[in-house]
Amino acid sequence: MSSASHLRLAAAALAGISSACSAAPASADPPDGLTVDLVCDDGNTYTTIARAGQTWNAQLVTTSTSAFHLTRYTSTFEVTAPDGTVEVFGPSTVVKGGNDREHKDLLNCTYSFTVDLGEGYTAYIYGPATGWLTPAS
Description:
Blueprint: H1 3-18, E1 34-40, E2 45-50, E3 59-61, E4 66-80, E5 86-95, E6 107-118, E7 121-135
Antiparallel strand pairs: 1-2, 1-6, 2-3, 3-4, 4-5, 4-7, 6-7
């Protein structure tokens, strides 16, 4: 499988960060999805769950009933082949609604995670993310 094919797989994995889960109360059984740590400029790290298929919905913060509302993110993909060669794609920025939404409590965060793409390929995906926290409804 080519690096481009693996990039498409990595892009599908990235859908997890941009296609965040619906806000829901925290429970003993965390929802399925990609766990993503957001390290934010308020001095906190928020562990969130991102799920595909629900673009731009709030990401559940696993340690509370809060939700992170994503408004912008930039992603860089580093796809590593089985032989150790690395191909970099990006950065690419996506903004909700085409522009940033004003919010008095906007947080600037960074994220990174690694996805196993199979056949010995991995993708390291990272970048900044902007949004705000609210209690889950």
